[in-house]
Amino acid sequence: MATTNDLKNGMVLKLDGGQLWSVVEFQHVKPGKGGAFVRTKLKNVLSGKVVDKTFNAGTKVETATVDRRSMQFSYKDGADYVFMDTSTYDQLPINPETVGDAANYLLEGQDCTVAIYEENPLFVEMPAAVELVIEYTEPGVQGDRSTGGTKPAKLETGYEIGVPLFITTGEKIKVDTRSGEYLGRVNS
């Protein structure tokens, strides 16, 4: 148990009959009159739904102990993704729903963080940016400008993103895993 005064970003709370909610952001508010309160933005760990919730200051909230382990993606086994704990070398199969959008950027040997609660994987957290090779993109046409305009490009993971017109097949680029945006070329 903790109080709303102890809240931190990333903390996982157990609310509404055992549902797990991650604190995205919080703000302590002390109005001119009346009691202080805490305004929070919470994200449901399983569904990804984000809600705003207000607590009175000092209210007791139940926290969930979520174990964040550094793991490496090993291989895909049928539909499941198999991760290896880098400290114990234990292998953990995780279903595609739990892996979510991280699957778009996963390559064998990719390091990431897996959040585990009571031996059940909750979600896979990728680094903010990853470097991937472009498997295929249409060639740029003479007269295309280097500023503005994008074209679709298929990454080595099979995921498709928009890249600037001057990017060619076989180039290594940096991609933002949170938004799927092109961040720039990677010099080899």
TrEMBL record:
Where is it mostly found?
A: cytoplasm
Q: Does the keyword Protein biosynthesis apply?
A: yes
**Keywords (A to Z) from UniProt:** Cytoplasm, Elongation factor, Protein biosynthesis
The record's Pfam families line, in alphabetical order, gives: EFP (PF01132), EFP_N (PF08207), Elong-fact-P_C (PF09285)
Annotated InterPro entries: Elong-fact-P_C, NA-bd_OB-fold, Rib_uL2_dom2, Transl_elong_fac_P/YeiP, Transl_elong_KOW-like, Transl_elong_P/YeiP_cen, Transl_elong_P/YeiP_CS, Transl_elongation_fac_P
For this protein, the record's PANTHER family field holds: ELONGATION FACTOR P, ELONGATION FACTOR P (EF-P) FAMILY PROTEIN
Q: Which HAMAP family match?
A: EF_P (MF_00141)
Name of this protein:
Elongation factor P
> Which source organism does the UniProt entry give?
Streptomyces sedi
